[in-house]
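BUG: 3D viewer hangs when loading the predicted structure for this chain

Environment: internal workstation, default settings.
Expected: structure renders.
Actual: progress bar stalls at 90%.

Input used:
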Amino acid sequence: MKFNELGIIDPILKAVAEEGYETPSPIQEQAIPHLLQRRDLLGCAQTGTGKTAAFAIPILQLLSEEGRVAHSPIRALILTPTRELALQIEESFATYGKHLPLRCCSIFGGVSQNPQVNQLRRGVEIVVATPGRLLDLYNQGLIKLNEISFFVLDEADRMLDMGFIHDIKRVLKILPPKRQNLLFSATMPTEVEGLVNSILCDPVTIAVTPVSSTVDTIDQVLYYVDKDNKKRLLIDLLQDKSVESALVFSRTKHGADKIVKELERAKISAQAIHGNKSQGSRQAALSNFKNRTIRVLVATDIAARGIDIDELSHVFNYDLPEVPETYVHRIGRTGRAGLSGSAISFCMFDEIPYLKDIEKLIGKGIPVVQEHPYPLQVWETKPKAPAPPRRNKPAQRPAGAGSGRPSGGRPSGGRPSSGRSSSGRPSGGRPASSKSRTPR
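Structure tokens produced before the viewer hung:
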């Protein structure tokens, strides 16, 4: 199926064609017709499936068909968890709506509200917002939401992970009851299901892939490595020129900064992006990464949500995530819209439980690189100290004591062969041409 078979109006088709897109992704093909019929929709789709265009295109079309209103009220609200994702969605609306007389702006915290307020005063039809700044402006009387016709809750699972549930409920109370509602989530935990029931009315449900699955075009591998050797292994792998661009995930902000320092010592260009960085710093780092001024971007999970980079060749899980669904989100930064990509994960002994949870979620084992310069040395915890001897009885020497080393034994659960070369280098390679991708 082609975009021109979905009932999309000519100005949007022209914008889509100018971006080099011809064929809609599965979620776009399934969602757009229902949304044009003004149905509520629940979209279960992992990152990189093109869901932003799946809701942006029909919203633009329906707003265009309604025509301009003299006082330019806000008629569409997209609620999203992070400022990076808000900016990304605003960019998508601008791209697909560039031949329409509709205006969009994003509002989020961490920066002065004045430029955002000025945009609102000039008049916009579409607002993409994070919950905190939206409520702040509403409480100041600087934004009106009483004429909203379209409400989108994007990344609902991440919203709840970040503690936005109460803010979401406050926003819902100030929206008009008659509106078209869309909810998108990569995973569907019980909390999200409760939110679905409170927002959507007789929705169409679209699940383009199993919520726990990882994209087939992503080559996943695992390295067992001790904590102190992670930085050495990362530097060694980044020496491979096939790693054209790398997004490295750190569990903590401090850890992200430390990784950048180690990479800079090794003459590898890198910057960090996390919550302690100013908005200007984060945007500069992201811009430098997109235009290839730097080759490596080190990020925490919250900061990285919404990062959309064409032809990202590699994702590195420097630290395995504690929440298994986060692994799916992370590696979905590469292999987007049908392109190829590589996801490389490091696992020290303490992270083995996280690895087992991830493999259980995705339903398969991650291939292990068996030979590399920094193999994991300790596979078991230290032996427990012997219990104190009972009174009037001589102390017993514990079996096996005195060796100073655990007995060995690999972790249970199996270690599938990687089928890779003994060098331990990532396979990577530049993804296919971006012209074959579908809109995000």
